[in-house]
Protein 1
Amino acid sequence: MIAHHPPLELLFDYAAGVSAESASLLAASHLVFCRECRDRVARIEALGGAMIDRLPGEAPAAGAFEAVLGRLDEPEEILPQPEFDAVTRTILPSPLRDYLNADLKDLKWRRRSLVHEEVPLGRTEDGAKLTLLKIHAGKGVLNHTHKGEEFTLVLQGGYSDADGHYGRGDVAVGDPSVTHRPVADPGEDCICLTVVQGPLHFTGLVGRIINPFVH
Amino acid sequence: MNPGELVEYMRAARPGFGTGEPSLTAVMMNVAAGAPENPVEDRLCDCVEAIAAAGDRAAFAELFEHFAPRLKAFVMRAGADPETAEELMQEAMIAVWRKAASFDRSRASASTWIFTIVRNKRIDRFRRASRPQIDPAEVELMTEAVETPDMIVARGQAEARLRDSLTSLSEEQISVIRKAFFEDKSHSVISDELGLPLGTVKSRIRLALARLRLILEPES
Ligand SMILES: [Zn+2]
């Protein structure tokens, strides 16, 4: 069961169709796992339907209906769907794999410490930095705080920190005032997507000399 | 033939067509759900179903008559010129025809379903990045992620009450909702534009959703 959801404003902006690319990607990926949030989004979309219904109309151009009727039977352009291998389909939700457009095995994991690896995924059109993060099973990574908002979506395994336990599909919201030290569940590496709006700041002496905190 | 003429023609050919009488199924579903009756919305749902079932062009004409002006206005409110708005409206109406089979009235009203179509058209046109797509088959595979029938019924009731309760919103609340849906503005853009703290915008929208009984009352 999903225990940690994205904030309502993120779902609202997504449902209204006004969220930035990074937020849309995060929301859509979470929705694959979470029926409660799909319900919330559908309720906000219902508000959109009711708002449109009350809108004073703008007259269509002369001949608009005939033009549309004439195009109804045009063959629909069907874009080829990218194919992904079974591991990718199991771990990455559809919005994320469409965005990456690559199989997991083709991504190059970079070792960041003895216990964690990352794949930098570049920036979305709104400037947010996307990263795939892998924490080795049973290990913890060092304290860091975040400047700017950070979201973490768990894709495989799980981890715990001071705020609780996060499993597949859960979204953690980074708070600049909180230092946390995630520890991956034993048995399986934990893979997450992180979305960061600003630069990461490591804290503490250990952090400054860039030594990982190893359990 | 314009939409009105097509509907007239169909009425002559098929007595009872388009009289606004809600279908029996729709009435029974609403009675079962304890929701207020809404013959117009029921009729619009019937029209989408008639397109899906039989490629019914007269039903499409009715939908066009109802939605085309609203969809055009919707796109223009977001800042598009009339030509672009006309073009997107026409594309959205063609998508209504093509996607009719995916419409499910137990999950959303016709207005809501068509809102999602025109919203996605607006995103695809005005942004570099297109809207992320969720594969429904993937959701079906995760049993815990599938919505329960209770959730769907409760949402249908909330949606049926929605139109009546919109008038209960304060001017402040309705204006932020309008900015989001019609002017293509996110929470943070609205906060900049109105010179209000982000927290104030968040709570206005939250309170509006709570008042419309779309979400539970926030704790604060
Ligand atoms: Zn959720």
Protein 2
Amino acid sequence: MSPIMLELLVRSLWETLVMTAASGLISLVFGLPIGLALVATARGGIAENLAVNRALGAVINGFRSVPFIILLVALIPVTRVIVGTSIGTWAAIVPLAIAATPYYARIAEVSLREVERGLIEAVRAMGGNRWTIIREVLIPEAMPGIVAGFTVTLVTLIGASAMAGAIGAGGLGDLAIRYGYQRFETAVMIAVVAVLIVLVCGIQWLGDRLVARLDHRN
Amino acid sequence: MNRHVSWTPAETTADSGDVIRLADVRRRFGETAALDGVSLGVRRGEILGIIGRSGAGKSTLIRCLNGLERPDGGSIEIEGREITGLGEAALQPLRRRIGMIFQHFNLLSAKTVEENVALPLKIEGWPKAKRLARAAELLELVGLSDKARAYPSALSGGQKQRVGIARALAASPALLLSDEATSALDPETTRSILALLKDINSKLGLTILLITHEMEVVRNIADRVAVIDAGRIVEQGPVWQVFATPKAETTKSLLSGIRPQLPAHIAQTLLSEGPGDVVLSIDIAGPAATGPLFQDLSKAFPGGYRLIHGGVDHIQKQPVGRFFIALPAASTAGLVSFVERLGAQVEVLGHVADHA
Ligand SMILES: Nc1ncnc2c1ncn2[C@@H]1O[C@H](COP(=O)(O)OP(=O)(O)OP(=O)(O)O)[C@@H](O)[C@H]1O
Ligand SMILES: [Mg+2]
């Protein structure tokens, strides 16, 4: 592989990392509270409100049912307002984050829902309020699942960011399509796949290790 | 174990002796009346055992006391204050004065033992150093100082319950609620947990409400017992009295495993009439049971009687005796009036089949 290709590879890797990290972080920051809201407003939750719960669920399902490639295009006006441009790596972060947030909210919801009711009850019996329950019980007890779910989201985002090439976002996926697929440069294709494998394995490994450290159940 | 635990149970208002007063408390779940008009008082400093079969309404009852469950009707006074109308926010300060221990411990897995014990104090807003110092004090009380930094998953069931007790006591509550605290533990661990509770009760004067379905637990540590069945209190009184002379069917059947029973092979062959010897049970307890019963009997009935089964138990330092004897039918009436004069209860059970 030529030095130019190598440079291209490094730049694409960086673009993928930026897109994944930024949209992953945004989905964490917004998805976790949404997941909490889903669990809290559900039947028997700490702030039961079935109307809010159903409305929130419907919005999430709506976003989740739109194929990403369509979301990518449909969100162009929104992206232009937020980032100032509708093309490039930073522009791709908007649709990626908007797709990943409801996805992560659902994953967080599942982990939070699995927290034993008895633990919530114990803290209520101590005189704790809702915030105490969220801070001392729900989040810490669900932490292994919250982290494991974040790992899954990041890996999914790496895959999704490949499509962001469609709006000129660059990244490894884009490189693979333009050089490896359209120009038959097999070496580039192989290199990209190898880098992606290492990236995915690395993230998964880090995530698993973190989960193992956080998990004190049994 | 160290016993020097500081204890400043919060101020108590006009002390009528009852920490808890329930009047006609009702709670339905759909068709089932979990509580069907419960009236009950719990006295300051006592251990009250509440016993009943599965589904009798025990958990519902105890959960009403700290507002985890809301009754449909009736009144619940804690330290003279009506709590049934209180909202969640008003219940929170009240709950801080009531400790609760659970059958399944309910320790937070993501927190260390000391963090678990210190959590009620964190909720009360204590600074970190102070609450950890208090947690250390309580862990010493329950004999788990060496586990302060461990996570609950590394503890045995009995150790977890000790942590649960330490946590329930952290905020110096005026009242401790225990819902089947020993049901998940083996007999030996159960004994040590009960001994700990008894100890806390006598050293710290803490009122304890203890729910169980095991008579053994009540027998070991309670001062008074209330029997609940189908959402109603069917019997209550000092433990030794209820054990000596149970009145309700539920009580008798709950007691059957722990009091002497007529051996099955004899019970099965008893006849309602006949020439055979009469079999009867004698229940004698308290001061009445301190006299030389059998010596008196032998003197009064030289015709003889046979002791079939029975013995004397000691509950709350009171002798509680239950005997099954057989004697010739002719002597029966005399013996019954004789022992009843001593303050015993006699029940004629039948006649033995073969005239031995
Ligand atoms: N949340 C609930 N929803 C519906 N029914 C309930 C609920 N809680 C309790 N019940 C019913 O109320 C009755 C009393 O239940 P409760 O849990 O108080 O019994 P318990 O005496 O504690 O029994 P156990 O010894 O099995 O714990 C039972 O018939 C139970 O099915
Ligand atoms: Mg129960």
Protein 3
Amino acid sequence: MAVKQKTVAESHAITGNEAVAYAMRQINPDVVAAYPITPATEIVQIFSNYHADGLVDTEMVLVESEHSAMSATIGASAAGSRAMTATSSQGLLLMHEMLYVASGTRTPIVMPVVNRAVSAPLNIHCDHSDTMGSRDSGWIQLYGENAQEGYDNLIQSIRIAEHPDVMLPVMTMTDGFITSHGMENVFLLEDEEVQAFIGGFKAAYPLLDTDNPVTFGPVDFTDYYFEHRRQVFEAMVNAKQVILDVAKEYERLTGRSYGFFETYRLDDAEMAIVVLSSAAGTTRFVVDQLRKQGMKVGMLKLRVFRPFPATELVEALKHVGAIAIMDRADSLSGEGGPVGAELRAAFYNEEKRPKAVNYIYGLGGRDVTIHHIESVYKDLANILETGVVGPTVRHLGVRE
Amino acid sequence: MSAGEKVITNPVKANAGWKELPIGGIIPQGGTARGFFTGGWRSLTPVWDAEKCISCLQCWIFCPDMAIQVEGGKMVGIDLDYCKGCGICAAACPPRTAAIKMVNEGA
Ligand code: SF4
Ligand code: SF4
């Protein structure tokens, strides 16, 4: 099928939150239950304008907290509707208990999350501590670099979540303020294209089908609980193929390709940075600069953190001499961040593996500049030259 | 309710493996609580006095299980298979009627 190439003139200058809210309007979910929190507030605020203007058929439930927002969304999804919400930071933390209920009950909820630091101290700016804290909750996690990816990921998530082999909730991330409030050119699909792509949602066991009564959320003791958790493991593994299949189909529609991650000048790279979300833009720029100086540098931008594409990451990075794994969240284990821990673990049984260091960066919205990224590549060059790894956890851009 | 009605055909095969079980702990059938006897949890037992009972059905409304038996709009007895002995029925029964007393089975 020929891809309809769009010109820049056909793009729209909008913010990340506007792009995400626009996608939500095009998805036209049956139910949205939400509570405002900076920097995700705008998503639901803009969506509520669409609602007030009669542009969506959605039932909006304005609840009293994020715990209630997630609870209502789970109820709506169990009832058989396509249900969404949105949040950030403390809001996601308040949902924490219900996140596990959503995945354990296999409700295919889709939720944009705008990444923001968590208290204390109080901070409204970007880091990934909020969603990284949900990494074991059974939600699929897609991280987007910019407004375009926030838009594209959200639309694809509907298909991923509702796929019969998956039936898991999905959260799609954009970086707080950097992406959510920054204006960019974004290519938007037509409403009919989005509707045709996502199709209708038909729940297998809708709670509101009173002719076929079902029980949701029964007690599940020593006799069955383990089997049900084993099913969630399988669904997460299944999600890998579904994510790739949905991305292929989305590429046919838009010409924009997605996978578990994006590699940039990585094939012949001796040094590489592994990074999520908006900092990838800065890194890509620095890669080009250093390449001009003859340094063999590359980048891997991770899009899918749950399920964790361990095998594919190893395959993509095993030829590299030294890698810097960037974490915009600290696990506070004393051993670095979540991406650093999991990526290094993925290499454990490999004979050939890169030397690896883990950088904590950008906490609380601290700027990560081209100079910071350059210094990381210089550190990697030094490791390759001396063969000495040195401190495996480092803090980038913090004052001593 | 006769004993026969308490046997439900469980849509979930006993000891089913994870591949066979419906996902998410969902039980794709209604009324399966009939096959689950909470009576085994009981230490206090409600004793109902039919003479005093005015069939106001407060006990039926408040019983957290399905122990209070009603026929033709009248309270007719307590099915101890579903009675966990919580005492809510006795507390809900109007004080001047006091048709249910909780007794200690072990005593
Ligand atoms: S004791 Fe509790 S469970 Fe038993 S009949 Fe009374 S209310 Fe129902
Ligand atoms: S609450 Fe007491 S009076 Fe009313 S129906 Fe039950 S036993 Fe009878």
